[in-house]
């Protein structure tokens, strides 16, 4: 389930790029240059999704703490 922020191209594009770079770095460190077999592709996708979700959560925390007003706070008052 994605938030409204994660649906924005200016937010998801840098996060996806950073996740891909980190995934390639981690897999090259593990000795996998290019995924050839199904198990290597599965490992690549699991790393990418894990990095993407983790970076997205950290970005969401930063945006939530930096934003001056939150509409959810306005609805609770």
What do these coordinates show?
The protein has 77 residues and is mainly α. The chain has a domain at 33-65. Helix content is 73%, strand content 0%. It contains three helices and no strands. The protein has helices at 9-29, 38-66, 71-76. The model has no long low-confidence stretch (mean pLDDT 84).
Low-confidence stretches: none
Q: SSE order in H/E notation?
A: HHH
For the report, how would you describe the main beta sheet? none
Oligomer: single chain
Q: Which descriptor suits the 3D outline?
A: elongated
Q: Which strand-content bin applies to the residues?
A: under 5%
Determine Rg (CA atoms, Å). 16 Å
Sheet/helix structural class: mainly alpha
Q: What's the mean pLDDT score?
A: 84
> Helical stretch count?
3
- Counting DSSP E segments of at least 2 residues, the number of strands comes to 0
Please estimate the helix content.
Answer: over 70%
Terminal CA distance? 27 Å
Question: What is the gist of this entry?
Answer:
By secondary structure, the chain is mainly α. It is built from three helices and no strands.
Task: Itemize the secondary structure elements and their pairings.
Layout lengths: L8 H21 L8 H29 L4 H6 L1
Helix pairs in contact: 1-2
């Amino acid at each position: 389930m994605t938030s409204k922020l994660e649906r924005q191209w200016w937010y998801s594009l840098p996060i996806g790029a950073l996740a891909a770079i980190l995934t390639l770095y981690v897999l090259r460190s593990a000795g996998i240059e290019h995924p050839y077999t199904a198990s290597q592709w599965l490992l690549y996708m699991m790393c990418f999704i894990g990095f993407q979700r983790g970076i997205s959560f950290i970005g969401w925390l930063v945006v939530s703490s930096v934003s001056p007003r939150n509409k959810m706070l306005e609805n609770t008052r």
